[in-house]
């Protein structure tokens, strides 16, 4: 019996009507397959697990697009591939932003010992950013490193400017609680002032 046979038309209809049990049933049937595709593309367990959650949230948010008499797997497959590619693009942008930040930090220290200190600070900074949820990391990097406005960030991330502000506030709050919060926040503030 195929997975589609486990998911009858009524399950899709129930999902469209907001039944969370229908979503749970779909999750039970398809989460492993979604994870496998995500892992194949991302090559990272944590990111793949996060992506599974994001895909099923998007499935829930887009449940009205499903057709009760059509298989749900093609819809999920398309979602997981699109989200994985978005994640890969985001990772690339974050790495590029970090490299710009590292170059920027290293540009201020002519002495070798200062360069080593800046490299250590940059590594700690990257560790702190890696601990943030993806949307918070993207929002704060776009704001503080790329110099984008809340409106520009909102357009890029397809969220409201108020949500961007909330992500940045939460990210700064998390960063304040990190092991190098004072140094890092001073560095970010210095970068912000120097770019103005």
UniProtKB/TrEMBL annotation:
Matches recorded under InterPro entries: RNA_pol_sigma-70-like (IPR039425), RNA_pol_sigma-70_dom (IPR014284), RNA_pol_sigma70_bacteroid (IPR014327), RNA_pol_sigma70_r2 (IPR007627), RNA_pol_sigma70_r4_t2 (IPR013249), RNA_pol_sigma_r2 (IPR013325), RNA_pol_sigma_r3/r4-like (IPR013324), Tscrpt_reg_LuxR_C (IPR000792)
Chain ranges of the RNA polymerase sigma-70 region domain: 26-93
GO MF term list: DNA binding; sigma factor activity
Domain RNA polymerase sigma factor 70 region 4 type: 124-175
Pfam families, A to Z: Sigma70_r2, Sigma70_r4_2
Protein's GO biological process: DNA-templated transcription initiation
Keywords carried by this UniProt record: Sigma factor, Transcription, Transcription regulation
Record-linked PANTHER family: RNA POLYMERASE ECF-TYPE SIGMA FACTO (PTHR43133), RNA POLYMERASE SIGMA-70 FACTOR ECF SUBFAMILY (PTHR43133:SF46)
Similarity annotation: Belongs to the sigma-70 factor family. ECF subfamily.
Name of the protein described by the UniProt record: RNA polymerase sigma-70 factor
Organism: Sphingobacterium humi
């Amino acid at each position: 019996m195929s997975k589609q046979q486990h998911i009858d038309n009524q399950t899709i209809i129930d999902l469209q009507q907001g039944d969370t049990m229908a979503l749970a049933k779909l999750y039970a049937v398809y989460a492993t397959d979604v994870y496998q595709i995500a892992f194949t593309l991302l090559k990272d367990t944590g990111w793949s697990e996060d992506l599974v959650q994001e895909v099923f949230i998007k499935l829930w948010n887009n449940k009205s697009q499903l057709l009760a008499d059509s298989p749900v797997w093609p819809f999920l497959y398309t979602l997981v591939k699109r989200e994985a590619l978005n994640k890969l693009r985001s990772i690339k942008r974050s790495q590029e932003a970090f490299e710009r930040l590292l170059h920027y930090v290293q540009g201020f220290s002519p002495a070798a010992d200062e360069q080593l200190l800046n490299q250590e600070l940059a590594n700690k900074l990257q560790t702190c950013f890696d601990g943030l949820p993806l949307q918070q990391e993207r929002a704060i990097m776009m704001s503080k490193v790329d110099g984008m406005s809340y409106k520009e960030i909102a357009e890029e991330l397809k969220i409201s400017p108020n949500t961007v502000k909330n992500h940045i506030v939460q990210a700064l709050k998390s960063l304040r609680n990190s092991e190098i919060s004072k140094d890092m926040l001073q560095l970010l503030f210095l970068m912000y002032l120097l770019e103005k």
